[in-house]
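Loading example: each entry is read as four labelled lines plus one structure line.
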Amino acid sequence: MRVGVLTGGGDCPGLNAVIRAVVRKGVQEYGYDFTGFRDGWRGVMEGDTVRLDIPAVRGILPRGGTILGSSRTNPLKAENGIRRIKETLAGLEVAALIAIGGEDTLCVAARLSDEHGVPCVGVPKTIDNDLSATDYTFGFDTAVGIATEAIDRLHTTAESHMRVLVVEVMGRHAGWIALHSGLAGGANVILIPEQRFDVEQVCAWVTSRFRASYAPIVVVAEGAVPKDGDMVLKDQSLDSFGHVRLSGVGEWLAKEIEKRTGKEARTTVLGHVQRGGTPSAFDRWLATRFGLHAIDCVRDRDFGRMVALRGTDIVRVPLADATARLKTVDPALYKEVGVFFG
Amino acid sequence: MRVGVLTGGGDCPGLNAVIRAVVRKGVQEYGYDFTGFRDGWRGVMEGDTVRLDIPAVRGILPRGGTILGSSRTNPLKAENGIRRIKETLAGLEVAALIAIGGEDTLCVAARLSDEHGVPCVGVPKTIDNDLSATDYTFGFDTAVGIATEAIDRLHTTAESHMRVLVVEVMGRHAGWIALHSGLAGGANVILIPEQRFDVEQVCAWVTSRFRASYAPIVVVAEGAVPKDGDMVLKDQSLDSFGHVRLSGVGEWLAKEIEKRTGKEARTTVLGHVQRGGTPSAFDRWLATRFGLHAIDCVRDRDFGRMVALRGTDIVRVPLADATARLKTVDPALYKEVGVFFG
Amino acid sequence: MRVGVLTGGGDCPGLNAVIRAVVRKGVQEYGYDFTGFRDGWRGVMEGDTVRLDIPAVRGILPRGGTILGSSRTNPLKAENGIRRIKETLAGLEVAALIAIGGEDTLCVAARLSDEHGVPCVGVPKTIDNDLSATDYTFGFDTAVGIATEAIDRLHTTAESHMRVLVVEVMGRHAGWIALHSGLAGGANVILIPEQRFDVEQVCAWVTSRFRASYAPIVVVAEGAVPKDGDMVLKDQSLDSFGHVRLSGVGEWLAKEIEKRTGKEARTTVLGHVQRGGTPSAFDRWLATRFGLHAIDCVRDRDFGRMVALRGTDIVRVPLADATARLKTVDPALYKEVGVFFG
Amino acid sequence: MRVGVLTGGGDCPGLNAVIRAVVRKGVQEYGYDFTGFRDGWRGVMEGDTVRLDIPAVRGILPRGGTILGSSRTNPLKAENGIRRIKETLAGLEVAALIAIGGEDTLCVAARLSDEHGVPCVGVPKTIDNDLSATDYTFGFDTAVGIATEAIDRLHTTAESHMRVLVVEVMGRHAGWIALHSGLAGGANVILIPEQRFDVEQVCAWVTSRFRASYAPIVVVAEGAVPKDGDMVLKDQSLDSFGHVRLSGVGEWLAKEIEKRTGKEARTTVLGHVQRGGTPSAFDRWLATRFGLHAIDCVRDRDFGRMVALRGTDIVRVPLADATARLKTVDPALYKEVGVFFG
């Protein structure tokens, strides 16, 4: 049997670990052949393939990125996308497809599997940890580790210079990275997209922190938004700047804090540093086990499924479940962490 | 209300994070006073205390070790141990006790709570991850990360010199560190205490690895034991050596591999490096949440309980459950990982 | 004999290592007493002191920041600054002063020593490595290491997404951090303050890099400035933004590259992350040896001197030499490194 | 013109950085062709070559090991070794040879160049930093960094458990790694091969350290040897053990300390972990500059030379100088560091 493998969407540490596990177990235990598709669904539509055998996956476990390449091509939006996929698979005699990706990639896999009879297995991937149906996704632990290390380093400067340090981390729709790295790094304020923040409250925490010890560290998710009256998006200098996603809220907030508290504030924008480089041991373990279980789904002909983490077990859930809703930070959890603010 | 806190047993990254969370929430939300006991149960028996308030826990989150000190003193084995504990607590008006420790420490807390009416809450701690009733214990992720980084580095040398590299990691009774770091580090053989290993099989994997690519890396838990016929404990040079725990099985195995395969072999014994230093972000998150929930147990007067991780939730389990049996590596999981051997 | 110690200027990993070495050797070998002054020259002017003995310096070697605090207070610009310093030193019977700091701090020490008969010894400190008379300053190696690790991580994302990644690193007047981290991280363009850059040339390198392999990484020092015609400082959105120092040139350059090449570009601003946290082994070694030799200067009554690194030796140079001119990147060295551009 | 490149001797982080720099500059600036020889001198003698052009050196800068492979084959000891080298070079039209290696490799290059008219340029390589004529060799900073990080981690355990921790680091003939990592890690005793140590003195330091604060950390180079009366090499259990190089002196010393002071002692043997993995930023900078200057030697037809570091400059020295004598730790420097013992 020949099995196709693709990786779609943004970069994420652990993709190569999944690919390696799928191929190692598939070849050694089940005698499968593999076809790698280049750059996600684009490669499937265009029949653009990569050799994928045991030598090809040697040494890739600790490497970030993906040996298959990735893209955001969506066959549901491409002309004859589905038909071209079926033609490629038929032409190459690919009998099953393992799609490793985030919401978009898995959504396509779900539709292909449920509506078009293409036998798909999904492996969830998002650095933001915002996919339902799994406790964690790989890449998240690595990102949190990098952000935490940065926050650790900033404490010394905060101590010595009495400046507010604002750290902008990834998370456009969910605050998981901000919450975990902020807690682990001992931040004094953590702002997430799930709850609009009140700049006055932030300034009150900043001021009380200065009184209690030294300068505060504020961790803010890139998608965090102030309350209506705060008008961040109407800020002209920001608008003309263009890159709202990357340097928006952190810079804006630092300026507001300076204006309102009279304290100097500085911003660090970690950006893509969070999603590159070697995966943490946790992510390698998780990604590898996802890969081992994904190929077992293929062997069991259990298609339309996604592998997921539940506690310490890898389970199988319907592909559709994974993409039904975004997994955001529960208000109760945010409140639990709030004991460290100020 | 006054709450006592102690840490018992071996060193473990994350202990300070628990203490900080307990005190921060206890003081700020519930208005409790705290008394720290020095060096575990010894401090309680002898009334040896440490100041424990918010200034005392400032800045300790990223630090390894424990500001309270630790010891292996067991009051159940000490003369009038229980009576002296009760006297200390009464004298200091300590109304509840949070015991952070491994099997031994928690066992004492369970007995105190269940049989002697001392209101105890337990927080599980073991770098070996071998406590039942919780998915993970803090310290484990840090240890696995350190061991994985070491294995990563050894790959370059293995590649260049065609030598077998044996890495001995912690784990006297359970193979969790070996299993996780071995998998994450791409080891070619992983040996754990749960399953006696066959030196001939190890040598077969070593030989096949040399054929397939470059020199193999063998990860062995310090408690791994060869099959009977292999007579490791009867080895004279080992016996006269004395330090079986530290340099035993790794060195022995390297010599056996050299003898049987004719390939050069070298050993690295990571030792205490695995249990020191700053905790990983994962461990800081887990330890902090354990602390927050432990103090909630006190507020709820829910004694005789231990906090535990289930998926992404912190739950409460009877203290006695935690110590009922050692959590060892399931044979099915070991087999799953075995696809990468050789 | 009583010796005063102060640290002035910006945060820099290794300050504590100097303090520890000075005190350890001064107490143990020469029997000196020490007085720490809080927050640089401010503490000397105001007689604000910190206990400084062997217990006070225990455990500080690996810690960033400075246990003495720092400030940018300049006694030469303060009313009666010099007189107040002399009064404090006389009142406390401080017979010699060790000043650890950058250009400003050492300039004060030089004037005090040469013109006012205050016996000073200087220890050079600048993360930017731009002090003359010494091969390296401590803090620099740590900053370069942090920036290099960030660039390493960005390569994976550059590979997977075909985006230009601009990394803005510290260096307002000298490009040492950009040059070393850019070279070590395999950057495709490195821009330094010493040489005005030509945006068209940068875009040409970017384009040629895309042709040769994958997306380029551009490392730019915060003080790098484009050629006249490029008008960065006249850019309106930047002007209204305010924080030119922190997020200026990196963001501006990314936008220009997008505009001119049609390729997507993203910016990472490492900011204060580069100057915080534990010093590298190299910086601990250098800072410690500086401290040991500074106290030897005191013993030898060799004042008005600064310790400096020459090859592997620590030498003594006149304090005035250190501040005579900024040590900038030699055009020949920049050209040497330029072989890797594009 | 065609230039040959080889790497000889033990593994060392930075080898790939040299190779990349040589090829990048040689191809781009001088239009040379390159031939890589596999496994050091063996490849030259046997005509075993590797393709070496710009694509071949892409992405290798951060990787440990060497893409050319290495061996300890010595053509001076092989039958017709020199003649076979000359034949290979003539057959492949290789007009110059860049030999990257330690004492043995460079010695061959010196002989080939001086006595046999083979145009050679040497690049010094040794993780032990014991080559004369250069301030530092690449690989050393990486090794020191790894050992220092391990020592940092051990401090927490030393604090909590009152155990002596012995760390055995690399260095058979020179104590550079022990000296630098011991100082940077805040060790309480450092033992080097250059000075026979007195176990009684070590025990006195251990005891005094326990009195002053907490448990001591002892860093010992693998080649350190006790004074005659201490008879380490006559120890039977050690002799029968076989692996004196790896686990000898550390284990022996821990046992002696236990015996003589009554304190528990544990050993960590870092082993090959110190020489693998990604090079530090310092080593990448140094190795790259060595490569750039080595190819300049070829262009200048300045053969029989080795590139070397002097301060911040790369200079050229006669190949013979480099191997004339081992660069060991100066007694004065060891004494300087000794202020931290005990």
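Chain D touches chain B through 44 residues (CB under 8 Å).
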